Amino acid sequence: MTMARTEIRANDPVSPPADMVWVPGGTFSMGSNDHYPEEAPVHRVRVDGFWIDRTPVTNRQFKDFVKATGHKTFAEIAPDPKDYPGALPHMLYAGSLVFVPPPSANGLRDWSQWWTFMKGADWRHPFGPKSSINTAGQHPVVHLTHSDAFAYARWAGKDLPTEAEWEFAARGGRDGAEFAWGDEFMPGGQHMANTWQGEFPLRNENDDGYERTSPVAAFPANGYGLHDMIGNVWEWTSDWYSPKHHADAPKACCIPENPRGGQEDGSYDPAQPNIRIPRKVIKGGSHLCAPNYCRRYRPAARHAEAVDTSTSHLGFRCVKRTPVPE
User: Fold this and answer.
1) pTM for this structure?
2) Superfamily for 1-81+92-326?
3) Long-range contacts from 208-213, C-beta under 8 angstroms, 24+ separation
4) Which of 28, 57, 70, 319 is the 20 to 30 Å CA partner of 201?
C-alpha cells in the first residue's frame, strides 16, 4: 500500500524529560474501516506535539510513587457495602480480575470462562496473593483502575494521553499502516510485540518467549522510539468511550484538532443501552490478543473499560504537553 505522509507541525525540543520521547504534532488518519465496527470510520485528525513515556509505567516506577505518596489502589480496598446493596458480605472483598486459562471453553463470547475476580490480586500480586513482583520490576504495572493511573500521572507532573495522541504516537509516523511497524504482522518471521500464539484461551505456544507480560522494551521500538505501544498490556487513555468515531469534517479547514472523544461520561452505548458504568478508551491490545480472538494488536484498535475495573493485562503510560522551547 502507499502510505500517506505524516504532516509535521513542530520541531523536536532539545531538553527531553527523563524516559520520555518527543512526538511531533501532525495530521493523520485515525481509526480503521477494515476491522471492528468501533474503529470506524477513518477520519483525519490533528494533534500538537507532546512528550510520551518511552515505555509503559513499570512496577518499579509505580512502587516509587506508592512509597512517596502512600497511595492505595482500588484493587487493594474492600468494596463499601453501601455501594453494592443486596450483595452478600462474603463477596465484598478486595481483589482484581486475573486471567486463568480454562481447561476447556464453550465458545469465545463468555469471558467469565477465563477471567476470575481473585481475592488478594493487585499490582503487588499480579496473579493472586501468592504471587509477587520481586523479579518483575521492569514489567508494566497492572491491576490499576483509571483513577490509579491518573493519580500516578498527576504525581509525576504528567497526564494520561488522549486517544488521538496515543494512536498518533503508536503509528510511529506510519500513517495508514496496519500495524505500528508496517503492514506485515511478523516481518521476516520476527515477533514485533508480545501477543498470544496458539488457540486462545486454551493454548499459548509462547513463540515470542512470553506467556504473560514481558519486560518493557523487550520488543523493537516503533518509528518514534516507543516500545510496547502494541501488545504486552492494554493502556488507559483519558477519553470517554463512544461506540464509533465521528466522520470526517466536510471541509478541510475543519479537521478536529487535539480532539477528546466520547460521550459526556462515557456511559451510554446505543448498542448496549443497559450499561451505565462510565467507561474510558483503552488502546494497544495485550499479551492475550490472538488471531482467533481480539485482533486488537493494531494502533487503530480500541476498547471500552469501566473506570472502576482493573485487570492483569491493563496498564498505562503518560504524556506531558510541554510547549516547544524557543
Assistant:
1) 0.90
2) paralog of FGE (formylglycine-generating enzyme) (3.90.1580.10)
3) 210/287, 211/287, 212/126, 212/127, 212/287, 212/312, 213/126, 213/136, 213/139, 213/140, 213/142, 213/287, 213/313
4) 57
